[in-house]
Amino acid sequence: MSANPRVGIVGGGQLARMTAGPAAALGIDLTVLAADPGDSAAQVVRNVLVGSHDDLTALEGLSGSVITFDHEQVPPEFLVALQARGEVVRPGPDALIYAQDKARMRQALAQLGAPVPDWAIAQGAQDVARFAQEHSWPVVLKASRGGYDGRGVWVVESIEQADELIGNAVLAPGAVWLVEQFLPFGAEIAAQVARSPHGQAVAYPVVETVQDQGMCARVIAPAPGLSDDQAVEATRLALMIARELDVVGMLAVEMFVVDDRLVVNELAMRPHNSGHWSIEGAVTSQFENHLRAVLDWPLGDPRLIAPHAVMVNIIGPDGPIPPLHEAYRHVLARDPQLHVHLYGKQTRPRRKLGHVTVVGDDLDDLLSRAQHAADYMMGIVDE
């Protein structure tokens, strides 16, 4: 058996795939539990177990590794069982539950004094209507478990819409309905930190995220238009949440900027789309720092290597898309300073297929170049 450190990742998506490079560079034996041999990470990682994240026997295949996550959909009771038999799970189930369950997250953040939207648990449409009488329509209705990339989140305008939605939706096991205040925010930002078991933590520059139909489309580092005081406060909140919830690994705290105040929206306890820019744009990427953190190694420098970095996602369009590698050749020949990452996924509408990153001094120029390359990859422009 190899004497190298061992890390097992639950989930074979693009986050696990992008962790493979830093793992190889650090001499870490990486194992991925993938749902299918064709999953994104399974295509590039040598040690692949094929099985489901909600199968305890499959999860036990990662025994002997530090176990971490590509996604948060693992049943919490399975993680408790793994930990009880001596497996190292990071972040642990007591922390991860706050990223898995939005109701638990809201309760914990409120207790910590973090700014959150007004919210309540709703048993049915009448509860939604009572909440709306106090806060006005529209309101945000969320399933507490099982959602990601905008799934499981709806903006509803009336009791009739709420009744139809609640009556027809199938909730994940253990999920409840949350109704939240609709906030007319000016911007969405994300503060990412890495934290190790012994308490060392580092903070990445706060970024602006631009969403399209609930899915991240573009990230700008650092967030333009954010005051120094707001950036410091966002970082303080993220570090406080990581410490108080005992998060180990990467934590992304997604926030709204509402007038001059910050409001925490979501938590993710893993590498996150808002940090993909860090592969080329930071001294140490989020993927390397996640590995360092879960192994309790010294953390790397999270600072930008240039004044700005821009990342644009390549998202499957509704119509035809050019062959990605033919488009790859075109955009790299046109702009040799681009970095294009493809995730090895079959193309389908509204699916993240890859991303483009560019770093430099002129933000407007970077935005234009990154967006043009992504648009070409998606078949939106043809030159």
Features:
single chain, 383 residues, alpha+beta, Dna Ligase, domain 1, D-amino Acid Aminotransferase, Chain A, domain 1, 3 domains, 12 helices, globular
The fourth-level CATH homologous superfamily of the largest domain is: ATP-grasp fold, B domain
CATH overall fold name of the largest domain: D-amino Acid Aminotransferase, Chain A, domain 1
Give the overall shape, derived from the CA principal axes. Answer: globular
- Rg (CA only): 21 Å
What oligomerization state is this entry in?
single chain
Please provide a written account of the structure.
The protein is of the alpha+beta class and 383 residues long. It folds into three domains: 6-89, Rossmann fold; 118-181, Dna Ligase, domain 1 (2-Layer Sandwich); 187-377, D-amino Acid Aminotransferase, Chain A, domain 1, CATH 3.30.470. The protein contains twelve helices and 18 strands. Strands 10, 11, 12, 13, 14, 15, 16, 17 and 18 form a nine-stranded antiparallel sheet that branches. A five-stranded parallel sheet has the order 3-2-1-4-5, with helices on both faces. α3 (76-84) runs antiparallel to α4 (93-100), α4 packs across α5 (102-112) and α6 runs antiparallel to α7. The longest helix is centred in the middle third of the chain and has 17 residues, at 228-244. The chain starts with 5 loop residues before the first strand and ends in a 6-residue tail after the last helix. The mean pLDDT is 95.
List the helices and strands and how they pair.
Elements: E1 6-10, H1 14-26, E2 29-34, E3 47-50, H2 56-60, E4 66-69, H3 76-84, E5 88-89, H4 93-100, H5 102-112, E6 119-122, H6 125-135, E7 139-143, E8 153-156, H7 159-168, E9 177-181, E10 187-195, E11 201-203, E12 207-212, E13 215-221, H8 228-244, E14 249-258, E15 261-268, H9 278-281, H10 286-294, E16 308-315, H11 324-334, E17 339-342, E18 352-360, H12 363-377
Parallel strand pairs: 1-2, 1-4, 2-3, 4-5
Antiparallel strand pairs: 6-9, 7-8, 7-9, 10-11, 10-12, 10-14, 12-13, 13-16, 14-15, 16-18, 17-18
